[in-house]
Amino acid sequence: MEISIGVSKNMQPQSQRSNRRAPRGATPPARTIRPLAAIVCLALAGCGGGDETADDIAIAARSEQTASSTTTVPDATSTSEVDLAYAADEPQAESTTPTTAGSGLPPVTTIVGPSGGDPDNIYIGTIGSLSLDTLTLDQEVADALADPPKLQPGTHPLTGLPGELIDRPAAVVKIDNGPAASPHTGLNAADIVIEEEVEGGVTRFAAIFQSNSSIVGPVRSGRTTDVTLISSLGQPLLMYSGANDITEGILRRHSHIQNHSFATSSGYWRDESRKAPSNLYTDTAPHWASADGSAPPAQFAYRSGDTGADGMSAPEIVIDYGANRAVWHWHEGKWDRSQRGKRHLLANGEQVSAANVIILEAERVATGMTDAAGGIVPEFPFVGSGRAVVFTDGERLDGTWTKPRLGDVAVLTDRNDAVIELTPGRTWIQLVESGKGMWR
Predict the structure, then answer these.
(1) 296 contacts 230 by C-beta, under 8 angstroms
(2) CA nearest 270: which of 104, 21, 39, 4?
(3) Could you tell me whether strands 215-216 and 71-73 are parallel, antiparallel, or unpaired per DSSP bridges?
(4) How far apart are CA 384 and CA 398, in angstroms?
(5) For residue 287, which phi and psi values (nearest 5 degrees)?
(6) What mean pLDDT comes out for the span 337-366?
(7) For a surface tag, which of 41, 104, 319, 410 has the fewest beta carbons within 10 Å of its beta carbon?
(8) Which secondary-structure segment (H or E) carries 251?
(9) Which H or E element spans position 84?
(10) Nearest-10 crossing angle of helices 81-89, 36-44
(11) Half-sphere CA count of 236, side-chain side, radius 13 A
């Protein structure tokens, strides 16, 4: 694959740059452009954002000629010599995380990223074919059970809370949820958070921001599932540390997604008080300052006034992904989250909470990629229909999610095909494999 990259005059060799450490607590200046070596690394090897070797992806080639062979393409979670050089050369990479959003970083600049690898004869999943004339944003694959929700005047589109509409796109940030990722930053500022399995029962978050700006992190790599999770948001920004070559190609071939990855965008920094790879952060404000697009459509319908949910009492929710077990407790009018046997506390001391928790079941599909231990890297195509269980107002309502087209909002309906209405506020989605009893 040939790539053409314009070299900025700001891209000096590492030996010519200052090695001074920023003072503790300083706000990191933004870089103008990603260093050339790291871009070449992403384009040709897919080593991406400098994450740990344990997540390296081995992709099994499926062509007739290589049916029994295995091709290794590092994930964005791999560490290479180029990654290590880049981590050392990261502009002010030693500085700590700013404490407030809008921290003085200039508008994010991006460059055109590499197209990524060709999945032919390698990738065997479903999502990678959605933009290859098999399924477009407008091609219907399921029958709609109800009309999609409409934005109510004077409310925010992703929470239903009262407020003046902010005309900016949704910003989606991929966040680490391994043991080393805690404490997280920014989850309680998100409008919607989706927990998805990556591999080996480990999970990551897709935090979706629109009504609030926030420092967010630690930022980690993208997955193919992300395409279907955010395709209903219009022209969302997608912020992530990087991806292996095949995944990067799938993410970048969807033109409605504004790709603001660490590989090709400014506006990221590393917190030296934490160990890599769980030390990459960003701020949504400078990404919005240079973004295109307008506010996303409403994603849910909401109850009005003091109307309560008409379901069964459900004071606790348990979701077991394998490597992570999450528990939600209904407490003082909200759902409080725990994981790994203790309260899920953020860097500011707040416990993660939500107005609504939704369990969505989706089919698990093998991608043809495996992790370093040989575990299958899955994807969960979120298009079509599946089981939905909504927890709102301390009660449980069983039903169905239906997303007829890739670009449609997923509509939640009860057993009578009536639209399920949520409590205005932040919503957490727990994406789980269909029919595996992962929750109770």
Answers:
(1) no
(2) 21
(3) unpaired
(4) 18
(5) -70, -45
(6) 97
(7) 104
(8) helix 245-252
(9) helix 81-89
(10) 150
(11) 29
3-state helix, strand, coil in the chain (%, to 5): 15, 30, 60
Pick from 188, 245, 227: which is nearest to 44 by CA?
245
Query: Reduced to 3 states, what is the DSSP secondary structure of residue 334?
Result: strand
Residue 420 vs residue 254, higher pLDDT = 420
75-130 confidence digits (pLDDT tens): 333 332 223 222 323 333 334 556 566 667 889 988 876 666 666 668 888 887 76
CA–CA separation, 339 vs 345, rounded Å? 9
So where are the chain's domains?
127-433
Q: Which residues contact 354 (CB under 8 A, 6 or more apart)?
A: 193, 328, 334, 335, 337, 425, 426, 427, 428
Find the angle CA(381)-CA(379)-CA(157) to the nearest 5 degrees.
Answer: 50
Taking Cα atoms as reference points, which of 331, 410, 10, 75 lies closest to residue 220? 75
Query: How many C-beta atoms lie closer than 10 Å to residue 228's C-beta?
Result: 23
Q: Are the C-beta atoms of 360 and 403 separated by less than 8 Å?
A: no
> Tokens 């870089």 correspond to what residue?
31
Dihedral sign computed on CA atoms, order 49, 377, 260, 300: negative
Q: Dihedral of the CA atoms 257, 258, 261, 264 (nearest 10)? A: 130
Q: For residue 427, what are its two tokens? A: 């919503």
The architecture of the domain spanning 127-433 is 3-Layer(bba) Sandwich (3.50)
DSSP string, 211-241: S---EEB-B----THHHHHHGGGSS-EEE-S
Longest dimension (CA), the chain: 68
Return the pLDDT at 233: 97
- Asked whether the bond before 148 is cis by omega within 30 degrees of 0, the reply is no
Q: Are 206 and 224 in contact (CB under 8 A)?
A: no
pLDDT at residue 3 above 60?
A: no
What integer pLDDT is reported at residue 99 of this predicted model?
59
